[in-house]
Amino acid sequence: MKAKIPFETSTVDLSAINSTPTTVTGELSAESQGLTPEQKRATVIGVIVLILLVALIITSIIYLLNLSGEKVALIRDVFIIFMALESILTGLALVILMVQLARLINLLQNEIKPILDSTNETVSNLRGTTVFLSDHLVGPVLKLNEYLAGFTQFIQVVGLMRKPSKSKQSKGE
């Protein structure tokens, strides 16, 4: 099947279109996802690490179930200490976040707002300038053009001036 569709001065070749139907499956292969070999390797390593982590957790739970009460209590105490350290780090991160947020608010109020106010003032001055130019320059020029066009038409109607001939072409054409 070789069909050509004209488009301005070029043609499009449709022979490269595959006319055989394809089947759609629920799985996406690595080629259809466009993964590079490095990405494939990283995905495989990530899956293996996840499987090992789950196996380690299951093994640890089974081991802890077989221990005596004293050892389990010791492990519990160590775990509580680690959780306390984690909550301290979380609190520290929240304090840092609040300080950064305060600095951002200060920046917005003391630096960005004056810039926006100055910009609004400049835009209003520009608006006033354009209105002034429109009223005092563009308006009178348009009125003058209207009067000249009317005067030219009047002279042509009276017969004092000939109409410009349309048969002559300009130099650019």
Number of helices: 3
Choose one word for the global shape: elongated
Number of β-strand runs: 2
Oligomerization category of the chains in this entry: single chain
Strand content: under 5%
Strand arrangement across the biggest beta sheet: 1-2
For the largest beta-sheet, the strand count, sense and barrel status come to:
2 strands, antiparallel
Overall mean pLDDT stands at: 81
Give the low-confidence spans.
Answer: 6-12
What is the rounded Rg?
41 Å
Describe it for me?
The chain is mostly helical and 173 residues long. It has a domain at 37-66. Helix content is 71%, strand content 5%. It has three helices and two strands, in the order E-E-H-H-H. A two-stranded antiparallel sheet has the order 1-2. The longest helix is centred in the middle third of the chain and has 90 residues, at 69-158.
Summary tags:
173 residues; mainly alpha; two-stranded antiparallel ribbon; 71% helix; 5% strand; elongated
Give a short overview.
The protein is mainly α and 173 residues long. The protein is built from 3 helices and 2 strands; from the N terminus they run ββααα.
Ordered list of secondary-structure elements with their pairings:
Elements: E1 4-7, E2 10-13, H1 30-33, H2 37-65, H3 69-158
Antiparallel strand pairs: 1-2
